[in-house]
Amino acid sequence: MLLDTFFRPRSIAVVGASREPEKVGHRIIKNLIEYGFKGHLFPINPKADEILGLKCYNSILDVPEQVDLAVIVVPGKLVPMVAEECGKKGVKGIVVISAGFSETGREGTNLERELLSICRKYNIRMQGPNCLGLINTQNRMNATFAAAQPTAGNIAFISQSGALGSTILNWALQKEVGFTSFISLGNEADLTAADFLESLAEDEQTRAIGLYIEGVKDGPRFVEVSKKISMKKPVIVLKSGTTDVGIRAVSSHTGSLAGSDVAFSAAFRKAGVIRVDKLEELFELVLGFENQPLPRDKNVLIITNGGGPGILVADACEKMGLNLPLIELNLREELRNSLPPHASLNNPLDVLGDADEKRYEMALKIGLRSQNVDGIIVVLTPQAMTPSDKVAEVIAEARKTSNKPIVTAFMGLDDDSTAVKTLLKNDIPNYPFPESTAFVLKKMYEYTLILKRSNQKPTFQIQVDHRIIKNTLAEMRKEDRLTSTIEEAFKIADSFGIPVPKVMVAHSLKEAGDMADLIGYPVAMKVVSPEILHKTDVGGVALNITSRAEAERNYENILNKVHSFMPQARILGISVQQMVPQGKEVIVGAVRDPQFGPLMMFGLGGIYVNFLRDVSYRLCPLTRSEAEEMVEETKAYTLLRGVRGEPPSDINSVVNVIQRISQIMTEFDEILEMEINPLFVYNEKKGCVAVDIKMTINKLA
Amino acid sequence: MSKRAIYIASTKELSGKSIITIALARISRDLGKNAGYLKPIGLQYSVNEKGEPRDEDAETMRKILNLKVNTPQVCPFVVHREKMLEQFMKVDLQEISQKILTAYRDASEEKDLVLIEGPPSLSVGSFIGCPVPKLATDFGAKILLVEKYENDLVVDNILQALDYISKWKSSFLGVILNQVSSTKMQKAKNVIKPTLEKSGINVIGIIPEDKTLSVLTVKEIYDAIGGKILAGKDGMDRTVQTVLIGAMTPESAAGYFRKAKDDLVITGGDRTDIIFTALEVGVSALILTGNLYPSVKIFPRADDLKIPIILVPFDTYTTLQMVQKIIGRIKPTDEERIKKATRLVKENVDWKQILQIGSHSN
Known about the structure:
The complex is a heterodimer. Chain A is an alpha/beta fold. Chain A is flat, with a radius of gyration of 31 Å. Chain B is built from 15 helices and 17 strands.
């Protein structure tokens, strides 16, 4: 296993171990001893001879044996010196609990850099600094100063926040959720979330990984690593900082760019991780994924002893996009014979308020046998006639042989009631509120889809003459421009096989006339200026020009209007462009996210784009199916398929354009933004054409 | 009284007089000629360490032209735009006139030629009986108009100026059309120039716009508006072409930051999201307003990237106004810009005509 030094050390030194019980340096030694770490433990403290019965050493260099892992709790300023000693001692991993590093500003950042360079020099890997430590329940190693001693289980948890980490440990104890390991990331100066994810991927015992993050250190690596892991086990991620205010708070807290939520969503999707929006949902899912088989499909059977709660679950399922099928006729007949005549055999399957464990058992067995059902939700409300603890046992029994997930909502019961305890002990995820059950099954189904997605075809690349784009970029650099002219953008798009109209840029009245003649009427004319983002707003566009005289008149007109609206704008000329027939308007764009790289955007086009926000996003490079999904996710898709008897549009050509822009963005790091707005889409087999394209390149450092 | 003298004047503010004056001084120096400089009336009122009024721009010119005199000699009268009437209420007009003439004499002494820089418009100084054409006549200088060509109204302005000049019977050398954008160049040459020439106006040069000349450095802005440099000290020499306000979401801000070259971003110190976006996209500098200290965690990143972060007490709007005021007043203080300007003048202006005529005027 990767990072074995951290997860399975044979010996641990605690540098800065303390005799005083309230000190962190004491707590860590105590946790290690009490949790039952089997390897050798060496407290390091020059002022003590013995701590908790263990012989103390002046320095790690005095330890007579090999030390695999050092947990460091000395004041921040002393950490580099300790790390140096660890290096000389041949220690391969350090966990730096101490704070006072990059989280405190300039001096701390320098200290952290110094520490990191020492680690690099000695080939030491480092967790933290400024972290809570780590736990591996499999070898009874609790190298944290957390108060709770977690039970062993199948969940690994990684947290960027130490505070949240200790909360989760406490919560898990109450919910009887067992861990394989727990990792607090701290400042991630060396080891990042991706490193720990990578190593947990290989841990057979770990069935699911929960992750709390505020940001990621190396976006592309995070995506790459997560993509591989999520094929083996689900990764459930809670990312905070999704609102404007939250993003600001994250920036202040982590001292880094928080990044747009859109980019994170796209990154998580690419990585195949399951995203939740609330801490509560993270807990719910961890519980769900811990021991359950995955649903094959999205068909759910609800078994309930109360009409109302059953309907609540049914509503929730429907909203989540789950199906509530009827079970097969013959199975219903079987049930009819064993249930009271007024029991509902539909879905929700109502076993009635006076149901005992037998009725539940009957319904459960039928549900498990039904080919129409992929997952079962059991709802129980406290009724005099319904023995909840016996129902829990029945479910526990059914679970043993089931290859379908079973989740329950035993409502109105205490966490320490026998029924709830029985369920949790037998790995049945139980929730106090019925809606949670639908949410959990939906997310489990989502993971089934992620696994299916893994065998998609790789991205299709077209052969392109890169010289055209390289020359254009060089030209822009020469003229010291960051934004392209329409002529340049069209040239590049054309070289990648994106259909564009004929275009030329005029610098005088005469040129405008000559160019219009050459292109052929009707033409469109547009102002070319790096400062003008919305040409229509400043009178910078004239359409349907049918004669030379008109072209010349419009040349003057546009210059005048633009000048009066934006006197400072630098005008590079007026483009004369072939008019193309009106099509359905969509946008295809891409922007290079500073953390995750190129991010594709597709949506409804035209002047309402900013208002309607009918857009979908994916990280580049795109697979064909991702490009197709992008179109299918939007309302624009409905329009493209044709509404009210319109013929369908050439969606295939749009998908091609999306893939090609993705290819351009992937192949040319220099390009920061590229947007086709609008792209006119014509009827099926008639293609599409980019009417306007904007491109921005990066600033040279 | 008459000595080889050129009075560089304009009808509107910010036409580029100073830079053309510097370029002409450089060209004459290269020809082995010694040029004197005088700015009879200055409007960039400020106070020096001793509490004496002085003209900021004249002070800059004094340094660039390496004049071995003090600022009051270069610019005898500094006028405060808001209080000029009170300023000169008790001063004898005769005395003013005399003082200016003395200054001119000093400036021209042992010089092959004198370059006189005018105030923003020809009429400035009228209230003390010293408008540009009057002084030009007194000095025996020829007026060279430098006009920024923005639209056709420039023709009317020039014609009116000529009318005014002839009223004072001062001699007129011609006009330079300055800062002509590439899209207007053809029109300047094919329409404006012939039109002016038809009215007997000598168009001596048409200078294309060069954005890099109107660029200033972060340090220049900092020197002008003050504040506290929190981070990125090593980037004070970065240049600034555009000023942007960071008040939107980080994503939309990023869009603007990406498209602008050498952009200075003004935002609140509490907008850590905007600050990081600006740092990652790469801007020239950040000015944080309202004395709101940002999170200390941004400093190391700004230091690494060498992007200055300056904290000021003003609100965003005031800061923007202050910065924009400086941008209009850029002085070509660095050698790079002076060389560029000199080359532009050499290539696009009939400077021989200017300097020869200047030297034949005796």
